[in-house]
Amino acid sequence: MNQPLSGIRVVELAGIGPGPHACMMLADLGAEVVRVVRPGVQEPPTPYTLRGRTIVEADLKDPSDRDRVLELLARADVLVEGYRPGVAERLGLGPDVVHASNPRLVYGRMTGWGQTGPLATTAGHDINYISLTGALHAIGPADQPLPPLNLVGDFGGGSMLLVNGILAALVQRASTGVGQVVDAAMVDGVGMLLAGILELRPMGMWTDTRFDNILDGAAPFYRTYRCSDGGFMAAGAVEPQFYDLLVRGLGLDPAELPSRDEKSNWPVLSEQFADIFATQPRAHWEQVYDGTDACVTPVLSFTEAPAHPQVAARRALVAGEGEEVVPGAAPFLSAGSTGPAGLAEVGTLDKVLAGWIS
After folding, report:
1. Which residues are catalytic?
2. What is 248-306 written as a DSSP string?
3. Are 257 and 269 within 8 A, CB to CB?
4. Residues 6+ away with beta carbon under 8 Å from 14
């Protein structure tokens, strides 16, 4: 299979969250990933983010094990670690040590707060990284911010940023022959994800009041509506031509409604639309808007999503056994193949090292 990262060797010092997720994406793109775990560590029972790995045990506090990991790193292209700043150095696996034997290595560091700054060495989770950047304040109903799962900080702002940095460093290495350290911080990544929202503020199109803005659920054309059976439909009819289709699907005439461009009309329009959506089950509205440009779609559960024709066509989510839902691989590349890497395999450090030496 002609995969874009075929031949790239990645060593992952085991962690949780965005580090494994980043390595999953690298494996899906064809990289050979070796995950180094502490002896006796129990991995997740459904390790989707661990697919495409060879999992080996090593006690990094044991000089013999650490030296063998250093031998592995001397032959690797990428290292991914998610320790707090200074931990890898104390283990004898910091960038200076690793680059001394392998200057071509791309050293990927995944943290919440980054390698510098007053919070760099303190603990945190997704909710904390998005709270200090303003993202959490903007999400949720008017009376309370609500965390959007752990998607924005850990994965959107974390693993995606790390993979971007690693791939950029690999491209630069192709011309310079030298690797570098990628300092990927979730707090930085969240800031980057906010670019589109922040540019609305100086235009007078976004306020710091929650549930008052065009994309936070306040607008009648960008929110969810409950149906008679308890299901929901999602409306994203931002552009006027799409809004007209949303309205006509509800059996209304756009010319007879208050202007949607006046924010003061939003509550009235939202209530009117909600009353109509509530008269029919979700399946009815799915049929009404199917194949149209109204930008109205059903809100599907994880159990339902893999069966949707578009999701199934792209294999974005794949139904496994029972209630299992497996994420697909992306993006699609015209000049190479991508697909979900196989299940993780348990190996030994000695066997992997022997293979890399040969």
Report:
1. 125, 154
2. HHTT--GGGSPPTTSGGGHHHHHHHHHHHHTTS-HHHHHHHHTTSSS-EEE---TTTGG
3. yes
4. 20, 35, 36, 37, 38, 41
User: Which residues touch 100 (CB under 8 Å, ≥6 apart)?
Assistant: none
pLDDT in tens, 179-198: 999 999 999 999 999 999 99
Phi/psi of residue 226, nearest 5 degrees: -80, 140
Residue with tokens 């560091």: 109
Q: Which top CATH class is 9-193+330-357?
A: alpha beta
Q: Which two tokens stand for residue 115?
A: 């390698």
Cα 87 from chain centroid (whole Å) = 25
Q: What is the pLDDT along the chain (358 residues), one digit of tens a residue?
A: 579 999 999 999 999 999 999 999 999 999 999 999 999 888 776 678 999 999 999 999 999 999 999 999 999 999 999 999 999 999 999 999 999 999 999 999 999 999 999 999 999 999 999 999 999 999 999 999 999 999 999 999 999 999 999 999 999 999 999 999 999 999 999 999 999 999 999 999 999 999 999 999 999 999 999 999 999 999 999 999 999 999 999 999 999 999 999 999 999 999 999 999 999 999 999 999 999 999 999 999 999 999 999 999 999 998 877 778 989 999 999 887 677 888 888 999 999 999 998 7
Give CA–CA dist 22/9, Å, rounded: 14
Q: Are the CB atoms for 215 and 223 separated by under 8 Å?
A: no
Domain with CATH 3.30.1540.10 in the chain: 222-306
Q: List where CATH 3.40.50.10540 sits in the chain.
A: 9-193+330-357
Please report how many Cα atoms fall inside a 13 Å half-sphere around the Cα of residue 129, on the Cβ side: 32
What's the predicted TM-score (pTM) here? 0.95
Written out in words, the top-level CATH class of the domain with range 222-306 is: alpha beta
* Residues 163 and 23: beta-carbon distance below 8 Å: no
- For residue 11, give the nearest of 96, 88, 81, 65 by alpha carbon: 81
